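Hi V.,

Quick status before I head out on leave. The structure for the redesign project is tokenized and pasted below; the design run finished overnight.
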């Protein structure tokens, strides 16, 4: 919420209270809050967490756009999207496990060795 919105509510409330319409002012402010909550719920309903996961982990942009389009049109169910996320993350974790298994102690020691930092300010 932006501060302007709250200042607007305060100005409306002060105006109506000074006019002796306290109950009416409370109803208007309640109506404004309900409109803000409806707008917020509509925004949150457009943010799909499984799609966000796919945006981060899926490398194929064409497939990602296809999934977004099909899911947005209702032809692809959320369970199918989650199944694809599981496949992508399983592949990603397996790739990490293979890389971790190939790392030997000398590689880890070389990476963790104390070495002087380059002098960047001279």
């Amino acid at each position: 919420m932006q501060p302007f919105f709250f200042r607007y509510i305060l100005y409306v409330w002060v105006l109506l209270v000074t006019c002796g319409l306290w109950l009416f002012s409370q109803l208007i402010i309640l109506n404004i809050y309900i409109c803000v909550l409806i707008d917020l719920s509509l925004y949150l309903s457009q943010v799909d967490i499984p799609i966000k996961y796919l945006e981060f982990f899926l490398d194929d942009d064409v497939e990602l756009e296809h999934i977004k389009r099909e899911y947005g049109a209702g032809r692809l169910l959320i369970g199918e999207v989650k199944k694809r996320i599981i496949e992508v993350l399983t592949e990603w974790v397996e790739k990490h496990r293979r890389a971790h298994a190939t790392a030997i102690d000398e590689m880890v020691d070389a990476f963790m060795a104390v070495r002087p930092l380059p002098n960047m300010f001279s």
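Above is the designed sequence. The radius of gyration is 27 Å.

G. will cover questions while I'm gone.

Best,
W.
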